[in-house]
């Protein structure tokens, strides 16, 4: 009789823990996952040359991120903000090297 009300509490606690973990992960973008996502979804079209060509369009990390968003929309990839960050960070570390 006493046990029933406990269950929702446990669910809430578990959800809160999961969210805390996700929140913590979001703060440390993962360029390795970004590299995988990029290889799988983006490299079919352009070689990496597009990121260091002389006339490259990105002038800041925010630009790179905006391009990533643009392409995920174009390709209907439905990435989370975290995944967009991972790819932007990967491209920045690998090619652009903008400081934030
Ligand atoms: C349909 C082909 C195609 C696909 C798929 C594609 N791109 Fe591109 N991308 C291009 C072309 C073409 C340009 C150059 C556009 C320009 O110069 O105006 C470009 C430019 C970019 C740039 C800007 C480069 C610069 O000048 O700094 C970034 C960043 C980029 N793409 C990221 C991505 C990412 C991330 C994905 C996967 C989610 C992706 N692209 C998928 C064709 C593609």
Q: What string, H for helix and E for strand, traces the elements in order?
A: HHHHH
- Please, what is the average pLDDT? 82
Distinct ligands, ions and cofactors found in the model:
heme C
Provide the β-strand percentage band. under 5%
Shape: globular
Q: How many DSSP E strands?
A: 0
- What is the terminal-to-terminal distance? 56 Å
Radius of gyration: 19 Å
Give the low-pLDDT segments: 22-26
Helix-strand makeup class? mainly alpha
SS field, number of helical segments: 5
Helix content: 55-70%
* Total tally of structural domains: 1
Structure description:
By secondary structure, this protein is mostly helical. The chain has one domain. The protein has five helices and no strands. Helix 2 packs across helix 5 (81-96) and helix 4 crosses helix 5 (81-96). The longest helix is centred in the first third of the chain and has 22 residues, at 6-27. Mean pLDDT is 82; it is low at 22-26. The site of heme C has 20 residues, from helix 2, helix 3, helix 4 and helix 5.
For the structure shown, list the relevant keywords.
100 residues; mainly alpha; globular; binds heme C
